């Protein structure tokens, strides 16, 4: 079992360090390598995703990714910015299905941005498409007819891209409560109309799943009004990015939401994938030992489950995180005082 750790920038190295300690403590004999990404890789090698990093990633069974993003790099040409590392990995490795589960842990009901009785009902999965949409369309700066500057990013989805993510989402719903809500903006966007048409077609293959559709503006509202109504949400790259940050605050903090990015490639142990917290490099708290590493530790659990076939070990990690929270080990993001290392220690002690 081989995995590659990509710490990245800002709080990325701090949170991945804690997740690595947890993986090591399980004693599974996993071979771990480190590889440079993001602003750190740009500063060391002149590129946010050096070819060596991609080669190491391809040779492993899975990737544990911290976060990328560095304010020093925000004025670089776009293809050299840290964020290109994560976008490049997702695209180059065809990791098109991003699973972002959001569930309220026991003891966190009072720490949600929502009322406890609303928050406690949350147990949803966002299935976000990751290889298409406005993220990867033609983009640029040009001069408009009146001589002023214009920026543009083309939004599009082709049928096959929608089909493959729809299958992932329907199968996920079959394994849960059997409800799938497809979120789009079909009242305005042709991209979304195609999305909706294809999802309806694929539904014929999953008659046991109850399918509904919701416009993204309404979905944002429903996520805070009554998030308990959702089981699985399937949506495009941009809407999924936004809704998942929103869902994180509904369960308590952005420092709690893990994710798995999967494709179709199988390894000797499971499905090849990249695992990362949904948050970024948090430059405002980087280097201060304040970051909550739980999202990254929970991402490591997803890695063990999906890419390494180690479901029991994944359960152990999730249970240890749950116990730490129940025992009141809360980071500042959740209104507590525990620092990054202290949270890591608390999870290790409960493994
Ligand atoms: N996948 C990724 O690597 C990824 C994801 C999102 C943003 N980014 C990048 O990160 C940089 C900062 O972006 P941003 O500020 O919009 O988003 P962010 O997620 O980094 O931070 C948003 C807010 O949440 C807080 N926060 C985030 N993670 C936390 C944690 N684990 N514990 C406690 N608090 C936490 C931060 O302190 C900040 O106040 C940008 O360069 C952005 O492009 C990268
Ligand atoms: C850093 C950025 C490219 C990324 C995205 O938009 O996908 C991030 O916000 C995320 O949620 O993983
Ligand atoms: Mg995001």
UniProtKB/TrEMBL annotation:
Pathway: Amino-acid biosynthesis; L-leucine biosynthesis; L-leucine from 3-methyl-2-oxobutanoate: step 3/4
NCBIfam families named in the record: leuB
Protein name: 3-isopropylmalate dehydrogenase
Similarity annotation: Belongs to the isocitrate and isopropylmalate dehydrogenases family. LeuB type 1 subfamily.
Function: Catalyzes the oxidation of 3-carboxy-2-hydroxy-4-methylpentanoate (3-isopropylmalate) to 3-carboxy-4-methyl-2-oxopentanoate. The product decarboxylates to 4-methyl-2 oxopentanoate.
Tree of life domain: Bacteria
Residues the record lists as binding Mg(2+): 217, 241, 245
Protein location: Cytoplasm
Subunit-structure text: Homodimer.
Family annotation (Gene3D superfamilies): Isopropylmalate Dehydrogenase
A GO molecular-function descriptor: 3-isopropylmalate dehydrogenase activity
InterPro entries: IsoCit/isopropylmalate_DH_CS, IsoPropMal-DH-like_dom, Isopropylmalate_DH
Pfam families tied to this protein: Iso_dh (PF00180)
Residue ranges annotated for the Isopropylmalate dehydrogenase-like domain, each copy included: 2-347
Chain residues that bind substrate: 90, 100, 128, 217
The protein's required cofactors: Mg(2+); Mn(2+)
Organism: Novosphingobium cyanobacteriorum
Binding note for cofactor: Binds 1 Mg(2+) or Mn(2+) ion per subunit.
Sites marked Important for catalysis: 135, 185
Keywords, sorted A to Z: Amino-acid biosynthesis, Branched-chain amino acid biosynthesis, Cytoplasm, Leucine biosynthesis, Magnesium, Manganese, Metal-binding, NAD, Oxidoreductase
Residues given in the record as NAD(+) binding sites: 280-292
Group of enzyme by EC: oxidoreductase
């Amino acid at each position: 079992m081989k995995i590659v750790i990509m710490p990245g920038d800002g709080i990325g190295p701090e949170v991945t360090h804690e997740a690595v300690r947890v993986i090591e403590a399980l004693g599974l004999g996993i071979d771990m390598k480190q590889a440079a990404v993001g602003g750190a890789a740009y500063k060391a090698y002149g590129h946010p995703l050096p070819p060596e990093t991609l080669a190491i990633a391809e040779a492993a069974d899975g990737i544990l990714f911290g976060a990328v993003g560095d304010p020093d790099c925000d004025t670089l040409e776009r293809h050299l910015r840290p964020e290109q590392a994560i976008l490049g990995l997702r695209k180059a490795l065809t990791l098109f299905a991003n699973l972002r589960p959001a569930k309220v842990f026991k003891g966190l009901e009072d720490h949600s941005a929502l009322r406890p009785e609303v928050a406690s009902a949350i147990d949803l999965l966002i299935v976000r498409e990751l290889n298409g949409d406005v993220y990867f369309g033609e983009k640029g700066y040009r001069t408009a007819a009146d001589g002023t500057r214009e920026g543009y990013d083309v939004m599009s989805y082709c049928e096959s891209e929608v089909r493959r993510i729809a299958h992932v989402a329907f199968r996920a719903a079959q394994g849960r409560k059997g409800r799938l809500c497809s979120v789009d903006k079909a009242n305005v966007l042709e991209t979304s109309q195609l999305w909706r048409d294809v999802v309806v077609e694929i539904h014929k293959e999953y008659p046991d799943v109850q399918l509904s559709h919701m416009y993204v503006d309404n979905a944002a509202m429903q996520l805070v009004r009554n998030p308990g109504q959702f089981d699985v949400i399937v949506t495009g790259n941009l809407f999924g990015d936004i809704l998942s940050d929103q869902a994180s605050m509904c369960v308590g903090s952005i420092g709690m939401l893990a994710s798995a990015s999967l494709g179709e490639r199988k390894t000797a142990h499971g499905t090849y994938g990249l695992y990362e917290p949904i948050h970024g490099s948090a430059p405002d708290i980087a280097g201060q030992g304040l970051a909550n590493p739980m999202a990254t530790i929970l991402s490591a659990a997803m890695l063990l489950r999906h890419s390494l076939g180690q479901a029991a070990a994944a359960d152990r990690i999730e249970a240890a995180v749950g116990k730490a929270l129940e025992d009141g080990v809360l980071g500042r993001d959740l209104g507590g005082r525990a620092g990054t290392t202290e949270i890591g220690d608390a999870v290790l002690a409960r493994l």
